[in-house]
Every structure is written in C-alpha cells, then in structure tokens.
Amino acid sequence: MRSHDHGIWTRDHVFLGHGHSRAETRAKWAAIVTALFMVVEIVCGLAYHSMALLADGAHMATHVGALGLAAGAYWLARRHSGSGRFTFGSGKFGDLAAFSSAILLGVTALAVAVESVQRIVAPVDVQYGDALLIACIGLAVNLISALILKDDHSHHGHDHTPGHSHGHDNNMRAAYVHVLADAATSVLAIVVLGAGYYFGLGILDPISGLVGAFVIASWSYGLIRDSAMVLLDADADPEQSDEIRAFLESELKARIPDLHLWRLGPGHRGLIVSLITPDAISAETVKATLRRQYPDLSHVTVEVAVCDGCT
Fold first, then answer.
1. Helix pair angle (128-149, 170-199), 10° resolution
2. Which distant-in-sequence residues (6+ apart) come within 8 Å of 78 by Cβ?
3. Pairwise CA distance, residues 165 & 301, whole Å
4. What is the phi/psi pair of residue 89, to 5°?
5. Is residue 99's pLDDT more than 90?
6. CA-to-CA distance for 244 and 283, rounded, in angstroms?
7. pTM listed for this prediction
8. CA angle, 241 as apex, 240 and 244 as ends, to 5°?
9. pLDDT for 272 beyond 90
10. Res 63 pLDDT > 60
C-alpha cells in the first residue's frame, strides 16, 4: 500500500545529506586553494631535489583531483536528485566519489613508496633551506583547506565503525582525509628537511616518504572499505537490524523472515521488511509503528503475509 503521509515516508527519493549545498561550496574552495599551491610545491620539489617536498607536492596534486571530484559529486547528486532513473535517489554519488578518491590515495601511496626506495638506493643532493621554506608554506595551505572543509562532522575521517556511519558524508570525509593526509606529509617534510638542514641527516628524506606512504595507504584502506560497503548496499547497521526485527516481533507479534537495512545517502537509510502475522495487519500500521520508534528511516517498504494457523 502507498502511504498518503508524505512526511518520513516521502516517495520523492531525494536523499541528499544535510547541508548539501554548503558542502559543495566548501569542496570547490578547498580545491581552488590547493590547486594554487600545488604547482609551486611540485616545481620547487623538482628544482631543490627534495623527495619529501616532491612527495608532498605530488600528493597535493592528487588532492586537487579528489577535491574536484568531491565537488563534482555534490553537483551531480543535486542535479539528479529528482530523477526517476535512480531507484533510490542520487545520494550515493558522494560515496562513489569517496571510493574513487580512496583508490587515488592508494595509488599515490604506492608511487611515493617506490620513489622513496629509489632515493634510498641512489641518494640525491637536496637544497634543504629552500625546500624547508616551501614545505612550511605548504602546511599553511593545507591548514587553510582543512578549515574550509572542517565542520561539526570532521571526526568522520577517524570513524570507521560501520554501525555508526549511516549519517556520515563519505564524500566530505574523503575530501577531509585527503587534506589531513597532505597536512601530515607536510609536517613530516618539515621535520626531515629541518633534520637534513641542521644535522645533515639526509637519509631521513626518503625514509619520510616511506612513512608518509604507509599513513596514506592506511587512510585509503579505511575509505575504500567504508564507501564500498555503502555502494554494495551492505547492512547499514547489523545491531540495529536485529533491534528492529526484535521490536516488530514483540510489538506486532509477527515473525520477520526477511529484513534489509541499507544506506541511501548521508543521514538516510532504507528498510525493506517482510512480516508473517496470524492476524490481518496493514502495511500502514507497520510503518506507523516503525515511525514512532525509528524516525531516521527515510524509505520503508513493507510486505505482510497473513498465516491463520501461525501463533
């Protein structure tokens, strides 16, 4: 049955995250700021022969693409929010962008690791003073981008628990993690360039590249795992799925042979549930019961089968 209540059970399939337009604007500005310094850092890294600086610049280049991808995903999700072509709305454009960004992070980590090993085998002279100055400016740029992207949900870059991520914006999280990774490599570059400049510890430069590659790869893995689970329509929260099942069985005295809970977009989840009851009960009654207990469900489909002999 189709509900005539267009509140929580809306059928318009617009499942964009809260503050979608603001997030799109922030992603655009972060991309612009990062791009302006990207060219400077890469050119100077090549000129001064610094692996730490070049790794930071190359990594920043991937962020320009990632931030542009994030902004593009917000635009596409907004543009197609009312399209009937997408069965459950366009809310997953951001998760698709996050998955792509995570792969880009992983490729970057591999490239930095390979180049660092080559520098360990065949060391090159590094102009530490000039490279150190550029690295400090790079860190400042990263912090500016982080401030642009940061909001009350900036902790998303650290929360990988599937059961607690249904309200998170993986697209913004991917953009924020890219900037955090850049800031981390900038700090590392400053430390090792300072060590090389003041103490002659040149070996730390390529070693820092390996450390940075490991950190980037670990963040890439977390993003790939979480965004892939959303794209594959994995159970958004196994614990809550069990809770909803137990609630319906207790409240309506029904058996639940089939239940699926998945993420539709930031802050939106869908639920499909089948019930077997001894007494006739309407789908609207089931939805109303769920509405009282779980107001965060955005799209619910209910199937009811009556079994006269069931107890």
1. 160
2. 16, 20, 21, 24, 90
3. 22
4. 80, 180
5. yes
6. 16
7. 0.72
8. 80
9. yes
10. yes
Residues 6+ apart with CB under 8 A from 23: 17, 74, 169, 171, 172
Report d(CA 259, CA 265) in Å as an integer: 19
Structure token pair of residue 199: 């103490």
Q: Collect all residues with Cβ–Cβ distance below 8 Å to 192 and sequence separation of at least 6.
A: 52, 201, 204, 205, 207, 208
Give the type of residue at 257: P
How far does CA 110 lie from the centroid of its chain?
20
- Grouping H, G, I as helix, E, B as strand and the rest as coil, residue 82 is coil
What superfamily would CATH give domain 238-306?
Cation efflux protein, cytoplasmic domain (3.30.70.1350)
CB atoms closer than 10 angstroms to residue 158: 12
For the chain, residues classed under CATH 3.30.70.1350 are 238-306
> What is d(CA 238, CA 242) in angstroms, rounded to the nearest whole number?
6
pLDDT digits (tens, 9 = 90+) for 100-124: 988 988 988 898 899 889 888 988 7
Q: Report the pLDDT value the prediction gives residue 5, as an integer from 0 to 100.
A: 43
Residues 60 and 37: beta-carbon distance below 8 Å:
yes
User: Position of tokens 């320009």?
Assistant: 64
**CATH code for the structural domain at 20-231:** 1.20.1510.10
225 SS3 class: helix
Amino acid identity of residue 240, one-letter, is: Q
- Other Cβ atoms less than 10 A from the Cβ of 63: the count is 27
Copy the structure tokens of residue 298. 């955005």
